[in-house]
Design a protein that fits this description.
The protein is an alpha/beta fold. It has 4 domains: 1-36; 37-78 and 87-319, TIM Barrel, CATH 3.20.20.300; 336-569, Glycoside hydrolase family 3 C-terminal domain (Rossmann fold, 3-Layer(aba) Sandwich); 599-716, Sandwich (Immunoglobulin-like). Helices cover 30% and strands 20% of the residues. Helix 4 (109-125) runs parallel beside helix 5, helix 5 (155-170) runs parallel beside helix 7 and helix 15 (436-447) packs parallel to helix 16. It starts with a helix and ends with a strand. Bound molecules: beta-D-glucopyranose (BGC).
Amino acid sequence: MKYTIACVMVLFLAGSVSAQHKSEAALKAKINSIIKKMTLEEKIEMLHGNALFSSAGVPRLGIPELTCDDGPLGVREEIKRFDWASANWTTDSAMFLPNGSAIAATWNPVMAHQYGVVIGEEANARKKNVMLAPAFNICRMPLCGRTYEYYSEDPYLNSQLAVQSVKGIQSQHVAACIKHFAANNQELNRDSVNTIVDERALREIYLPAFKAAVEQGNAYIVMSAYNKLNGYWCSENDFLLNKVLKNEWGFKGVVMSDWAGTHHTVAAANNGLDIEMGSSGPYDQWYFAKPLLAAVKAGKVSVKTIDDKVSRILWLMYHTSMSAQHPKGSIATPEHAKIAYDIASESIVLLKNDNHLLPLKNVIKSIAVIGDNAVRTFALGGYGAGVKARYEVTALDGIKSRFGKTASISFAQGYRANYLASRTDEQNRGYDQPDQNLIDNAIALAKASDVAILCIGSNREYESEGHDRKSLELPFGEQALVNAVSAVNPNTVIVVMAGAPYDLNEIKKSNHTVVWSWFNGSEAGNALADVLKGIINPSGKLPFTFPVSLHDSPAFNMDTYPGKGLTADYKEGILVGYRWYDTKNIEPEFPFGYGLSYTDFSFNNFSADKSSYKKDETIRVKFTVKNIGSSYGAEVVQLYVSDPVCSVLRPEKELKGFKKVFLKPGEARTVEIQVKVADLAFYDESKKAWNAEAGEYILELGNSSRHIVQKVKIAVK
Ligand code: BGC
């Protein structure tokens, strides 16, 4: 019986694969027949922007324009066709979704998928065919201004989330444009820096999430990055675009430039760029407009190359705007709000709770909410994509709604966030100074209250595209405020809202209760208040390491940031994030994967299904997780692998699997994680291939890169 079912399944799958091949072949034939009807001029019109966020179609053949909009935080408001000013629509306010590092902190690919579905549905409602999201450059350097948009320092976590957010967006027949390809890890000099990255680090650290998003997520568009990689602009990088992306990974979609990231006509056209976007000057003078027509006529770019680009665009259109199943979409619905809430509530990281002040007890009668971030919204600010949020619940609003019936709630601003991304350093001078009047008011309020909730951190002006932060320090004189408030009220909860690592050394030493929130979307305040109240048990884990000092971090330690002249040589190679701290034995402020809960978990019976594996086999590890505390909660169990004896340097450990497990008090569950032996390989530069060397490997189970609870040795033959 089992055998019959298996046979039927195999036949069914084979049938659906061949049906898929047939329909892809039919699509290809259809596309070829359309291309035959097009003039060279019409083809070239499709290869460059015709407005800020669109490229032309061919109306006479029924080919529509290709319309794009920015994520990643949500669908950006409508701007004018030819400039960045608001189009002043009244129907374009959208759901503001948690930022990239918040999504990553959920360690839950289901959340990334749901994020994608919301983005896709809202894009459809706004008639956008392409969402310029998700963005998942590796968080190499803690000061990078766009860390908040990106996911993680780890390629495996990055890949799992990237694949699911792409699948979510594209489930709505909207193209995900994954960005920025590749090694765009700093904002300073981003449009001129030449990043030097060895092939091993590229393959092991910087490319895996792009590869996964293409091969497993089937992403329709890739945005080339601004920077140069190993001497060539990413928008004309033959290695990156032709060799790796299109040939090795079999990418069928479109390479789109970042806005004004195209530099030449012939090199870009021949080396893999398909659409030029965001350049300046008259549209018909762009690199991929009249100059491209001239290059084709001069024989420098072949018609075959042009046809390939057009064919890719039509292919993506048949899967999106020209797809028969194209849904109408919806915007800022209650369902979208629920997803924004779920992501936010799973993203919040409990960093310290020494005295079990959290969750706040019902006996609390007065709460002082202190800090500019308690009343600040994060949907907009600084440079880069923002969202005209339909609504945004601030921390103060959330706390009032969850505690207002049983406690009196008062607010003091505490500090002045006097910093704008558009100002010069000179104009921003003094932004880091405390304001004694505001501090005095905060002290008075904190003294008179049972509990003080201190909302500090950064904001969307301070963390912004186009800038890197200058230091790890908390801005706006916040440390002075923290010291003053916690001196008068021992029941002080520090809530940090930010998207990247900060220096929390002093806070860690002297404060007992620390919660990390993010730019957490429309429902941020509700999610935070529910965590403070214990309605939600925090389950977020840090997606990147917080270093004790900047000097400890690899890019600074190796003196490779921001680079010498305009060259940033990634000398740390594969030792990025915890791979560096763990291998070099540098104690972090908070490690990768770290986060507490209101309950406790135990891990037992960690075992692998065999003791020795062949290279084409899969390792199946099992373990039991038990909730040994008294509240419902979730633990993210992390599986690291180390290869102690290897012909090349390997990191102390590498994440190879994880599972977020939700458990009732007392409940235990046996969990299985599978890892292909092939995925234990390193990229062997001498062989230009992946190499899983025979020998001993250690499987390590834990709940952060620094908290390993059980180990099992296996051998690879
Ligand atoms: C950013 C992209 C963005 C584009 C369009 C660029 O400056 O790097 O991420 O999609 O602008 O707004």
